[in-house]
Amino acid sequence: PPRNSNAVRDIANVLHPYTDHRAHAVNGPLVISRGEGVRVFDDQGKEYIEAMAGLWCASLGFDNKRLVDAAYRQMQKLPFYHGFTAKSHEPMIDLAEMLIERAPVPMSKVFFANSGSEANDTAVKMIWYANNAMGRPDKKKIIGRLKGYHGITIASGSITGLPANHKMFDLPVSDRFIHVSTPHHYHGANPGESEEDFATRLAEELDQVIQREGPETVAAFFAEPAMGAGGVIVPPATYFEKVQAVLKKHDVLFVADEVICGFGRTGSYWGSQTFGITPDILVCAKALSASFLPISAVMVNDRVFQALADGSATIGTWGHGFTYSGHPVPAAVAVETLKIYDEMDIVGHAKRVGGHMQKTLRARFADHPLVGEIRGIGLVAAMELVADKATHRNFDPGAKVGPRLAKLAEGEGVIMRAMVNDSMGFSPPLIITEAEVDEMIARVGRALDALTVQLRR
Ligand code: PLP
């Protein structure tokens, strides 16, 4: 490429998230220049269907004039203000009110942050503070799940359950963070074990872990309703019902991480509704603003809020907040986003098109010799590639079979993502149509055929 090309300048200057920089120095970046609906275009003009909505987030696609106008209007009126020491502004008030109205269970208040990681860290600090305020300072341990993804800051990264990531950063940061098993029936169940029996076993494990640690030390359980980055893992039947019974018994709070599932992704407004979860705290981000601008939110129920309010008198005001908490421009964009969701019936659309996507993925790929499991719900799915269909054995990670499929898909005009165990993710913009789903799946099919030929050689 020419010396001043984007690729050369990128290699020279950009430190990328989650990128092998040695390989990157040779291969260079895929530079995306513009977007249109569910499609993006690179700097050479090549078109791609974004099967992952970027990072599970661009729910309304890659162009939406109403969101642009909402940002522009707000920037002209009041480009910045904050919420510290009881300051406020209308976009923050409007958005908080809309979220409380739409919450899956009665919620009391909304706190704003800028990312999913910050929102989860905030939830941890709310819980630790609340338990101090409630006079039970030992109740601080946080339980996450292996393969759960909750972010990358020190606390949220400690709740995330990816041992490889933990190892490189010496996480979890303290023994306050504990992990229980992944609720993935395909890999975790014993031979012949039903989903219900598997769920019972996982709930018993959780109960044992809490008993072992001492219920008086365990504060909260964090879970994505359906796991995303861990490989789109839909919990086995009755799982959350049984888990919640255990948590209730030990007075352990439930934090629903709805960063991916929120706003229709699983075919209900919230993943909590899809799976019968009654969260004490709900965290959302990504589709909250259709990802046009960064913003995240933490909703708390009245019990948690009262502890935060009471604490001001006894242990000092809850000392937490970001400069950009509730920033008026992303908040105005989020307000407009939620209005668009209502107008387009995002839930009905995701349910209908999601049903079509789930059915078509299975019809097209379930019998393929490289495909072990196709799983998902609504407009989120994964296709897991295996070396042995009968035993569910995965390929050696060093063979990079998933990333190779992602690269071939790129050639066919689809951007998709290889996750743990060569699980290929599908989480397209929620506005995708059935015809676009068919086009995306046809392109992935051609890539899978090419991969099959490569692996036979
Ligand atoms: N929680 C979940 C479920 C996520 O999927 C993510 C990001 O993918 C996060 C938290 C972290 O969000 P962020 O990358 O905005 O910090």
TrEMBL record:
NCBIfam families: PRK06105.1, PRK07480.1. Belongs to the class-III pyridoxal-phosphate-dependent aminotransferase family. Gene3D superfamilies: Aspartate Aminotransferase, domain 1 (3.90.1150.10), Type I PLP-dependent aspartate aminotransferase-like (Major domain) (3.40.640.10). It comes from the Bacteria. Its cofactor is pyridoxal 5'-phosphate. It comes from Falsiroseomonas bella. Keywords: Aminotransferase, Pyridoxal phosphate, Transferase. One of its GO terms (biological process) is biotin biosynthetic process. GO terms for molecular function: adenosylmethionine-8-amino-7-oxononanoate transaminase activity; pyridoxal phosphate binding. This is Aspartate aminotransferase family protein.
